[in-house]
Amino acid sequence: MSTPTPRTAPEPGLPKRVTVYEVGPRDGLQAEIDIIGSDVKIALCRRLYAAGIRDLEITSFVPPTWIPQLADAAEVVAGVEAPAGARRVALVPNLRGYERARQAGIGEVAVVVSATEAFAQANLNTTRENAIVRAGEVIGAASADGVAVRGYVSMAFGDPWEGEVPIGTVTEIAARLHRGGCRTVVLGDTIGVAGPGLTSRVVEATLAAGVPVPALALHLHDTYGQSLANVHAALRLGVAEFDAAVGGLGRCPYAKGATGNLATEDLVWMLDGLGIETGVDVRELASTTLWLSRIRGVRAPSRVATALAAAGLPASTLHEERTP
Length: 324
Known about the structure:
The protein has 12 helices and 8 strands. Helix content is 41%, strand content 14%.
């Protein structure tokens, strides 16, 4: 019996092509409890490129005391060469992180700010306004160097301490990042509390605030299983870039019971079914999830990887090696 594939039924009015921005090696692994070896991280990045991923956030240049899981950032960058036409992005927390990333050979960076004061204090170790100023410093330096910047707005849909986040606050910050020079502004559902109705409202308000559709992306966590519904709501508004992590990696410490990011293979399966081009091979993504799960000794929450494994994903796509 052949491995199942999505049944295609295009929906009028949706984007013809979507950018799948893979965050597993960075946002996924940094939130997991176990520390993965550099050789496995390098192999993971290579597998993701081989699966067709062309937009990959591979690590973060933060102090090792903040995130021990990513203490080997420079080593991973040295071991991962992006294919022609592919992106190799690293998140940086400040100018010092930006300098380290550039020294390592990174040509595109991401910055993160918070829509709430509580999260800025708990996660970014600063005030909300200072986080924006700090991001602006990085954007300024990057612009001078001709380096593209991606700007995250965390807690854009809800905060575990402050609860509901005013939409006006989110849109103001998003617009500031865009005006400041971010090529892409990413609205983050950091604790996975958004539904399709709220997603539509926040996206519409952000567009109205001056962030154009081509510059807008969504970063979704799947705590309550709403991520794919939220993607669909955003697609209807023209959004064509979505973050995801292979295997659903990443467990937000601020959301009890969170299962992690939207799984990349689940996202690609849905997009394939809608007839939307991504350039990504969903079977190779599932194979990568199963490979990494065996190495880590855990079961990934990805529904597509689980279903394809049960259906007998051919052994020819299941790579057994542990290192590059």
